[in-house]
Structures are given as C-alpha cells and as structure tokens.
Design a protein that fits this description.
The complex is a heterodimer. By secondary structure, chain A is an all-alpha fold. Chain A has one domain: Orthogonal Bundle (Arc Repressor Mutant, subunit A), CATH 1.10.10.10. In chain A, helix 3 crosses helix 4 and helix 5 packs across helix 8. The longest helix of chain A is centred in the first third of the chain and has 23 residues. Chain A is globular, with a radius of gyration of 18 Å. Chain B folds into six domains: 45 residues; 71 residues; 75 residues, Nucleic acid-binding proteins (OB fold (Dihydrolipoamide Acetyltransferase, E2P), Beta Barrel), CATH 2.40.50.140; 75 residues, Beta Barrel (OB fold (Dihydrolipoamide Acetyltransferase, E2P)), CATH 2.40.50; 61 residues, OB fold (Dihydrolipoamide Acetyltransferase, E2P) (Beta Barrel); 62 residues, Nucleic acid-binding proteins (OB fold (Dihydrolipoamide Acetyltransferase, E2P)). Chain B is 25% helix and 31% strand. In chain B, strands 3-2-1-5-6-4 form a six-stranded mixed sheet. The chains are: A mainly alpha, B alpha+beta. Chains A and B meet through helix 2, helix 3, helix 5 and helix 8 of A and helix 1, helix 3, helix 4, strand 21 and strand 25 of B.
Chain lengths: 183, 543
C-alpha cells in the first residue's frame, strides 16, 4: 500500500512536470521502452531515436493535459506503439531493411539460407505487429519478446490478467491471419 | 471447441508449457485432437518469436544524453506560458490602449465581474492557496487587480510590499510542507552565496549552472527568483534577476518617531549591471527596521527618496570599516535590537541586514548553530551612528547543510585512494560506500552520491557496469582500410591490441572475436585466418 501511495505521488508529480519525478520516470522506463521499440524496429539507433521521441510525446501530452487515465506505463507503451507506427508510416517499411544488428553466428552454427529465411520471417512478423492495436502489440512484445508473465504484463498495463489473456489470444489470432497473408 | 474463453485459457496454458521447455509437438499431443487442431496454428505463431535477437545494450553515454535532453525539454515546457498567462497578457494589451481613467473603469468592472462569477467563497479560498494549488493563479490575479485599483500611491506601495512578504511566506510554507511545485516566484535580499548554495530572504536555494542569471549577483543585492521545489524541502533556481535594490525603495513613513534607525554608511558605486527600475511607484522596503527602544533623543531618521527613476540605480554597499573616530559613549546612544541574516564578516565587523555591527564586545550565543555568513541572528546593541555596537548576538537559525543526491554515470579516469575522477568529476569514495563490481580505471560506472553544500561529492553506491559484450563469429574479410576492417559486413576497429593469427587478406575467411563498445561499434580482440581465399587463376599471356 505504501508503495502504491509512493507511485501515486510520483505520478502526480510527473503530471506537474516535476523534474525529479520525471528523472525517476526516465530511469524506470527508458530502457524498457527502448527494448520494446527495438523489438519492433530491429535497429538500436532507430530504437534510441524513437525512445527519445516517445518521451518527448509523453511530455507534450502531459503539458497539454492529455495524460493517462488509469495506468501510466500502459499509456507510455501506447505512445511508444504509436511512435513506431508513425515512424513506419512516414518512412515506409519497404524502404527500410531491418538488419537485426546482432552479429552473425559462429561458422559451425550458421546456415546462411536458414538465417536469411528467419530474418525475412522476423521482418514479416514485425510488419504484422504494426497492424495490431496498441494494447495487443504491447502484450505481444512484453509477453513473447521480453518474457514477462501474464501477471507482470497486467500490472504494467494496468489491466486484469483476464483482459491481458484475451488481448494476447486475439493478437495471436490476428498475427496468424496476417502472417498467412504474408506467406 | 466453441467456448473462446476456454480456448484462451488452454492457449495460455500451452504457451506456459512451451516456455517451460516442452516441445510443441508434445504439448499439442496432450490435448484432444479438436483442441490441438485449433491450438497448432496459434502456437506456430508463438514459436516465430524464438529467433528474435536480444536488444543490444544501450551505451551509458547515450542514455545519459537522452536523459539530459528529456529533462531539458521538460524544463522548457514548464517555462512556457500557461493559458492563464496568455489571457492575462491579452487583457493587459487591451488595457494598454485605453486612457488611465478608462483603464481604472475597466479594472473595476473586471474585479466586479470576477467577484460575481467566482463568488466570495472562491476568492477567500484562493487567498489561502499556495503555489501549486489550482486556485493560486486566481489569488495572484486578484492581487494584481487590487494593486491596479488602489489609486493612492502610498496605499499601493504598502499593498505591494505586503504581497512581496506574502510571496516570501508562501515559499517558506512550500519548503516546510515539502510540496512539489514547478514554478515558485519570490523576491528578497541575497543573504549569502556559497558556491551553488544561495540564501535569498532566508530561503536556501541551489543555483545550478543551468539557471539563468541576469545581472551580477552579490550579497546584499535584491533578487527576483523563479525556482522549482522538487518536494524534498529544497529549492532549485531556474532564473534569478539581480537588482541593486528592491523595485520599490521605502514606505513613505508618515512621521519620524523617536525611534532611531541605524544608518549605515552607504558607498554609492554606479554599476553598469544595474537594472533600470521601470516601476513608477515607490514601494516599501522589506529590510527589517530595528525596533529600538524609544528614547527621547530623536535623531533624524534617514529618509529614502521615493523618486521613481528609470536610470540605473547605484549600488549601495555598506562598508565594514566605519570611521573609528565616531565612537560616542555607549550609554548615551539609543539602544537597538533587530533580527536579520549575517551578510558578511570581516573580523569583528559584521554586516547584518545592511547594518554594520561591531561584535568585539558582544556575547555571541551559538547554541542553535554557528554564526556563519547566512545565519539568522538577533542583535541587541547601541546605535553608534555609523555602526551598531552589539551587546548580544544570538544565532536563531544556522545555515542548513543541503545534501543533494545525485547520480553520475561515466568512465573512471583515475582512482587515487578514496578520490576518484569519473568523467572529469572528482568524487570521494569513502570506505563505507557500497561498491558493486570491480572498479578499475577505464571502466564505466554509475555513482549514486551526495553533493554536499561545500561542493564535495561523497559516493554512497558505485555500480560498475559489466564489461563490454564479447561476440565471436566467422566471416569473410571484405576490406581493409587502415585500422578499420570490414568483416562479414561489419566495420571493426583493428589496432595494436588486436591479436592477429596468420596473414589476413581480403577474401580470407577469418574467425573474429570482438568486443562491443558502449557506442555500438566493434573492436577486434583477435582475428585468426581460418581459410585463405582461393587464388584467382592468372590468365596465361603466352598463348
């Protein structure tokens, strides 16, 4: 309860653009948002830029009184999702080749053809995630790429576990259809 | 399988089993055929996520830069005028086009409208509000209206003086209540300046380098301060406008009483940094006037001229060395007592609230703290004309030690005993600091520390960042450009620290071991030729 009150107090201070509260929020969320965006774009530099943009949009929203209603973190992930979608809308996925900046595997483990196929599949999956709703995309990334449990995702998004399970199920069904279209 | 909720539940169950390491086929086989048929395509989507690469670690420098940029943006937004400011500005512009009599009429109507629209109760509530309260802007606007509607210059000056004091009191309350407020505004004399820590009218204020300062700050000058209160009982300056003296000098005192006011010697030094005071209305000084015991010897009270001026105001700096010849017998001098901050100390001559006080024969009570510059003291003594001969000085409030927590991320540049330099910042790392990891020169660390009022930074926790990630791979050496080689499409720094086995040439297949540097680039630790490039057959020229 004390932690909840402390969080509530922190978020209230964020609403008034209090510097120390914003610094705390940045420390708490910037890497989480970076990782979320990286999974969506597959490029660390772009992920860094879009993370910065997410926090800028967060400030603008607070300043203009369009802030969160129930869950701050759920709201922040929704901003990040929209930033990613906007990025690709403006830039166009087709022009952007995701390289998955991880280095190639050791010679013994590497099958270049299989690796190429996997890279294309990952890119198709990223494209498909862009077409999900913000909440669905957040659940998919947090659950299957960040490895959070349903309970953890529910807490981060300010939703019940049942709601997250339903979102997850619908998101996977939608991805299945989208991936079928791709293939 | 018609119940979607059941399928959702079974899907989650299957996902958890796969995450626990069970093969997908085994998981599917454990369900009835119809369920397995529905789950199979969904689980195949989930397995697609297996090959996604882990995000590379963020460079601490980039994180720090992003954080600083974010906070700077936030500060800029805070400084942007609110809707209320826009409205007030528009109203003022509207009034500027009217004659004075019409302006007053408009203001009267506006005030009446405010009362009618908001009601008396709201205005009473607003009058009790503090910065950060929703009604606070109304309080400030109401004050502005009352000043504008007060036609007598004396009354108006008195009102403005009251509002100056009210601002000072509000800041005290905000600090005492540890209330976070993003914008606080008040004005007062600079009592002390010690590094980043200033005292302005009894409030201790941190003035970071990022704060905008207009004018030349000095103890004794008047400062208009815009600051923020983070909510931890401290104040952080954003903007300080230095003025030589308050925008309004004195309340026109009706009649000189028998109470003498000590009159320190003022050395008038014109200064180019003085801010012209546009205020046409003389306001009362907020300098405390000693409340001396009335005596029949009515020495003339120094009268401050209340002439409005738009010319630079001369600096009034009391000198701490009054003429020793003017030492009348104490018993015939008027007794005075007053309270104020020590502005300056020069041996036994102290400057307290612009009064020169000789403390050579005084008893100094430091039971509540030491009588440092900035401390608030109560003084009892005798007015000797050019100075006050103190009989007793009691410290009422010593300078609090402001310990400000900070976090610094950077590279350890040197470690000399408990004195480290991290990215150019000297930090004391005492024996009781918690150190996580093995710090060595060149490693990246995050130090959580306390920035003391005296400027020292004392580390509490040191987190040594993990070493740069190491990657190994096999690829073709595609190009060599000095120290930068392209291997498998990646540009890799090759330097004297790189161990090279064989004679790598473009086209060779090489085993490479690289470290990923914080900026995302790669540095080769070792390169070994695995397979030489097949030599291209040279066409025979003899044919």
């Amino acid at each position: 309860m004390a932690a909840n009150n402390a969080d509530k107090h922190l978020y209230e201070r964020v609403r008034s653009l209090d510097q120390s509260a914003l610094a705390q929020i940045y420390d708490m969320y910037s890497t989480k948002i970076y990782r979320y965006i990286y999974h969506r774009v597959g490029n660390p530099d772009v992920a860094e830029d879009l993370t910065a943009l997410t926090f800028t949009k967060m400030l603008e929203a607070i300043h203009s009184g369009r802030d969160w209603h129930t869950s701050f973190s759920g709201w922040l992930y929704r901003i990040a999702h929209n930033v990613v979608v906007d990025y690709f809308r403006k830039k166009g996925r087709a022009q952007y080749v995701t390289l998955d900046t991880g280095l190639p595997l050791h010679a013994e483990d590497m099958d270049p053809f299989q690796e190429a196929a996997k890279t294309l599949q990952r890119e198709a999956l990223r494209r498909a995630i862009d077409q999900l709703t913000p909440d669905q995309a957040t659940v998919i990334v947090m659950r299957f790429l960040e490895g959070y449990s349903i309970a953890e995702v529910a807490k981060a998004m300010g939703k019940t576990e049942g709601a997250v399970k339903a979102l997850q199920f619908r998101a996977v069904e939608r991805l299945r259809h989208l991936m079928k279209d791709v293939s | 399988m018609s119940d979607p909720t059941r399928l959702e539940r079974l899907f989650e169950e299957a996902v958890e089993r796969i995450e626990a390491g069970e093969p997908v086929e085994q998981v599917l086989a454990s369900y009835p055929a119809d369920v397995a048929r529905e789950l199979e395509p969904l689980l195949s989507v989930v397995t697609l996520f297996d090959g996604f690469p882990e995000p590379p670690p963020r460079s601490p420098q980039r994180v720090a830069q992003g954080r600083a940029a974010f906070l700077a943006q936030a500060a800029q937004m805070q400084a942007r005028p609110s809707l209320w400011d826009h409205l007030a500005q528009s109203f003022r512009s509207l009034l500027a086009g009217l004659s004075p009599s019409w302006q007053r009429a408009a203001m009267t109507v506006a005030a009446l409208l405010v009362i009618v629209i908001l009601g008396h109760t709201t205005l009473v509530r607003a009058s009790q509000s503090l910065p950060g309260d929703p009604l606070y802007p109304l309080k400030r606007t109401w004050e502005g209206l009352t000043v504008l509607l007060t036609f007598s210059p004396e009354e108006r000056a008195s009102l403005q003086a009251e509002y100056i004091k009210r601002r000072q009191s509000e800041v005290s309350q905000v600090v005492q209540r540890r209330r976070p407020v993003d914008r606080l505004q008040w004005a007062g004399y600079i009592i002390s300046i010690q590094g980043e820590m200033w005292q302005v009218d009894g409030q201790t204020l941190r003035v970071p380098k990022s704060a905008r300062i207009v004018g030349t700050p000095a103890v004794g000058k008047w400062a208009d301060v815009v600051a923020m209160a983070p909510g931890d009982g401290t104040l952080i300056a954003r903007e300080i406008i230095i003025e030589e003296q308050p925008p309004v000098l004195s309340i026109p005192t009706p009649t000189p009483t028998a109470t003498p006011t000590p009159s320190p010697t003022h050395t008038a030094t014109p200064t180019a940094t003085a801010t012209p005071t546009p205020s046409p209305t003389p306001l009362p000084t907020s300098t405390p006037v000693p409340s001396a015991t009335p005596t029949p010897t009515a020495s003339p009270t120094p009268t401050h001229t209340a002439t409005p001026t738009a010319t630079p105001t001369p600096t009034e700096t009391p000198t701490l060395t009054p003429s020793p010849t003017a030492t009348p017998t104490i018993m015939h001098q008027p007794a005075v007592e007053f309270q104020g901050h020590i502005q300056q100390k020069d041996g036994t001559r102290w400057l307290i609230m612009n009064h020169i006080v000789d403390v050579s024969e005084a008893t100094i009570d430091e039971s509540k703290g030491s009588a440092d510059v900035g401390a608030e003291v109560w003084v009892r003594g005798y007015d000797m004309g050019e100075y006050i001969k103190a009989e007793q000085v009691v410290v009422l409030w010593a300078i609090p030690h402001m310990d400000i927590p900070e976090s610094i991320t950077g590279i350890i540049e040197s470690m000399n005993g408990d004195v480290w330099v991290v990215s150019g910042i000297t930090i004391i790392v005492p024996g009781d600091a918690q150190i996580y990891g093995t710090p060595v020169v060149g490693r990246s660390v995050t130090v959580n520390l306390i920035h003391k009022a005296d400027g020292r930074r004392i580390a509490r926790e040191v987190y040594v960042h993990p070493q740069n990630p190491i990657h190994e791979f096999t690829a073709v050496l595609m190009a060599k450009d000095g120290h930068h080689w392209t291997i498998g499409g990646y540009v890799i720094l090759v330097d004297d620290a790189t161990s090279i086995e064989g004679d790598p040439q473009v086209g060779d297949v090489v085993d490479v071991r690289v470290e990923e540097l914080p900026d995302g680039t790669y540095h080769a630790l070792s390169i070994r030729v695995r397979e030489k490039a097949t030599p291209t057959p040279t066409p025979s020229t003899s044919e």
